[in-house]
Write a structure and sequence with these properties.
six-stranded parallel sheet, about 50% helix, about 10% strand
């Protein structure tokens, strides 16, 4: 898909989502007695400090109650600072217990789009509504010049990563904002290493985490590059512990989240002040050669029609 076609299809949806979220924000501010559920939909950033503007995007198989439980744990982990939830709704098939089956095609679409965009190929429009909502939040944060913190779990790592890539395509001046004001924590990450370890070239600060008990994150998240077949990876993971992949990299966290609550209260690697210290401005030219090389496909996509 051409960049111009992608923008033509995506920009109106993002603008509609921005308008919708701003209407909710206005309603909440003008009517303090609104039902709690409506107040929970108010996710736009307004604070001057990053810890006031942290957004959580959940993974597969989470109805709203389960997603809120995970969000509450994330909020508790990061010193009780308010964390807002963009709900990545599960696609029910019969009931919630096997809702994850309905999420799988959406995950494949999210994965395909993200890998394509990261390598300079826009494979089609963005289909996931949670990704559109995330882009809308990024757009408003950039418009207001406010710092933004992002926590994505499992499929939420794909959603937030895709939102970052889409923002760079929709708004070519967004990379400077991302580098200055956005911090990202990915948990149970399902993005291959070759792509993931370069995310920090797009944002102010990045940390990612894989749980050794999570088979999906271990197989996909530990893929060293895009050419690996999944079968050898499965066999390798049966024989070898995954820590050797990560041990040399200090900001990669090994075994940090429990499946039902995402963050372990005693995890020593994810700093509890990750979203507290004010972001330090990144020099747009202060990027190592490997990061520059990785950014080339994205930049060429942004500039091409």
């Amino acid at each position: 898909m051409k960049k111009s076609d992608f923008i033509k299809l995506t920009k109106p949806r993002v603008e509609q989502s921005v308008e919708h979220l701003k209407n909710i924000e206005k309603s909440v501010q003008e009517n303090p007695d609104l039902p709690p559920m409506l107040k929970k939909l108010d996710v736009l950033p307004r604070g001057k400090h990053i810890e006031e503007n942290v957004i959580y995007v959940n993974g597969v198989g989470n109805d709203y109650t389960a997603a809120e439980k995970n969000r509450d744990h994330v909020q508790k982990y990061f010193s009780g600072h308010s964390v807002k939830l963009i709900h990545n709704a599960t696609k029910k098939i019969i009931d919630d217990r096997i809702g994850i089956v309905g999420d799988l095609p959406e995950c494949v679409a999210d994965y395909t789009w993200g890998i394509g965009a990261a390598t300079g190929k826009i494979t089609g429009p963005i289909l996931n509504p949670a990704t559109i909502s995330s882009i809308a939040v990024f757009t408003v944060a950039k418009e207001r010049n406010l710092p933004l913190g992002i926590v994505g779990s499992s499929q939420g790592t794909l959603i937030t990563f895709n939102a970052i890539l889409a923002l760079t395509i929709l708004e070519t001046n967004s990379i400077e904002y991302l580098r200055e004001c956005v911090r990202v924590c990915h948990t149970g990450v399902v993005i291959p290493q070759q792509i993931r370890i370069r995310i920090d070239s797009l944002v102010n600060k990045y940390v990612d985490c894989v749980n050794k008990k999570d088979p999906v994150a271990n197989i996909i998240g530990l893929t060293p590059n895009l050419n690996n077949s999944l079968i050898p990876l499965v066999l390798a993971n049966l024989k070898f512990h995954y820590v050797p992949y990560y041990l040399p990299v200090s900001n990669h966290v090994f075994d940090y989240y429990r499946r039902e609550t995402d963050l372990d209260e005693h995890e020593p690697y994810v700093k509890k002040d990750f979203f507290v210290n004010p972001p330090l401005q990144k020099n747009p030219n202060d990027t190592n050669q490997s990061s520059k090389k990785w950014l080339e496909p994205i930049l060429s996509t942004m500039m091409s029609g």
